[in-house]
């Protein structure tokens, strides 16, 4: 295990829910840039709000996941992005709920989904922030390690970690490098549905190759991320998703070059957020089911 971790074949880290830090609005942005997609992705990856940036195949040149404090912040970031990239076309999918967000089960063939419909009702303090930073860098840190680094007692460290995990503030996951065990790569999938998107998102989350499944507002109704061993395998998974009752259209975006992945390592500063209900309700012109 030590050898696998040192070689970066396996990463064990805590994925921190940004909501507990005041990042309350997330969105996936699909960009067809008027310039080189790789150059545009490099520019976008410099933004602190961009947690994930990748160039893709398909109708979009790149995809980014944005994590913002509130609706106004998201609108500012999207506007800046359009100006900086001079994009010919930008589609926005605003996250409503995750129904699966776990890269640790793909290789085992497990098909369990973890639903996150509600943000943790838990206000973190400075000690929690220190613990989240430790777990984000090393998900295998012992209570003794955490206690020493956070300058608290082992009992306090144990209690705090358990509470953070119970509220969903942090989830410790094992991520295997995509080149191992026959995994060729990942692809994002934008899905349009009829009827309640929640029901379909739950069914999609049950599929073993699916690492992420979420209901969104805007360009699609559901967004998923799937792993595949080859293009035949990818095609088979897409066919499986197409056969789910209520799915009307699927658009796939195989990942080409990953420019940024900082899901658990963005600056951990707390922000005060405004209720999204009172912020710019016209952001979603398509009004999809979720």
Outline:
This protein is an alpha+beta fold and about 290 residues long.
Outline the structure in words.
By secondary structure, the chain is an alpha+beta fold. The chain has a domain at 11-117 and 175-264: Alpha-Beta Plaits. Helix content is 29%, strand content 31%. The radius of gyration is 19 Å and the shape is globular. The chain starts with a helix and ends in a 29-residue tail after the last strand.
SSE arrangement:
Blueprint: H1 2-6, E1 10-16, E2 25-32, H2 37-45, E3 50-56, E4 62-68, H3 71-85, E5 89-101, H4 126-137, H5 143-150, H6 154-166, E6 170-176, E7 185-193, H7 197-205, E8 210-218, E9 222-228, H8 231-242, E10 247-261
Antiparallel strand pairs: 1-6, 2-4, 2-5, 3-4, 3-10, 5-8, 7-9, 7-10, 8-9
Helix pairs in contact: 5-6
Strand order of the largest sheet: 2-4-3-10-7-9-8-5
Q: What fold name goes in the CATH topology slot of the domain at 11-117 and 175-264?
A: Alpha-Beta Plaits
CATH-defined superfamily of the domain at 11-117 and 175-264: Lrp/AsnC effector binding domain/regulation of amino acid metabolism (RAM) domain
Instruction: Count every helix, treating DSSP H or I runs of 4 or more residues as helices.
Output: 8
Q: In CATH, what is the class of the domain at 11-117 and 175-264?
A: Alpha Beta
Strand content: 25-35%
Give average pLDDT, whole number.
82
Gross CATH architecture of the domain at 11-117 and 175-264: 2-Layer Sandwich
Structural class: alpha+beta
| Unreliable residue stretches | 272-290
**SSE string, helices as H and strands as E:** HEEHEEHEHHHEEHEEHE
- Please report the distance between the alpha carbons of the first and last residues: 41 Å
Q: Biggest β-sheet, characterized?
A: 8 strands, antiparallel, barrel
Q: Which percent range fits the helix content?
A: 25-40%
């Amino acid at each position: 295990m030590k050898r696998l971790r040192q070689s970066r074949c396996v990463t064990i880290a805590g994925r921190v829910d940004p909501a507990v830090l005041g990042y309350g609005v997330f969105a996936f942005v699909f960009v067809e840039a008027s310039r080189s997609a790789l150059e545009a992705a490099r520019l976008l990856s410099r933004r602190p709000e961009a947690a994930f940036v990748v160039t893709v195949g398909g109708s979009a040149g790149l995809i980014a996941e944005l994590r913002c404090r509130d609706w106004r912040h998201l609108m500012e970031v999207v506007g800046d992005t359009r100006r900086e990239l001079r994009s010919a076309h930008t589609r926005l999918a605003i996250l409503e709920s995750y129904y699966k967000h776990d890269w640790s089960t793909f290789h085992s063939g497990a098909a369990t989904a973890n639903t996150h419909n509600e943000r943790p009702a838990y206000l973190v303090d400075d000690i929690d922030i220190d613990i989240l930073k430790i777990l984000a860098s090393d998900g295998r840190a012992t209570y003794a390690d955490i206690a020493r680094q956070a300058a608290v007692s082992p009992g306090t460290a144990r209690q705090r970690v358990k509470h953070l995990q119970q509220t969903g503030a942090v989830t410790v996951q094992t991520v295997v490098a995509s080149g191992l065990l026959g995994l060729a790569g990942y692809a994002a999938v934008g899905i349009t549905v009829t009827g309640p998107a929640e029901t379909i998102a739950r069914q999609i989350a049950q599929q073993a190759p699916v690492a992420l499944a979420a209901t969104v507002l805007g360009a699609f109704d559901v967004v998923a991320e799937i792993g595949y061993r080859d293009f035949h395998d990818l095609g088979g998974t897409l066919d499986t998703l197409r056969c789910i009752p209520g799915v009307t259209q699927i658009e796939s975006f195989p990942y080409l070059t990953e420019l940024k992945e900082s899901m658990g390592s963005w600056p951990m500063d707390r922000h005060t957020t405004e209720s999204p209900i009172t912020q710019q309700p016209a952001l979603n012109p398509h009004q999809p089911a979720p």
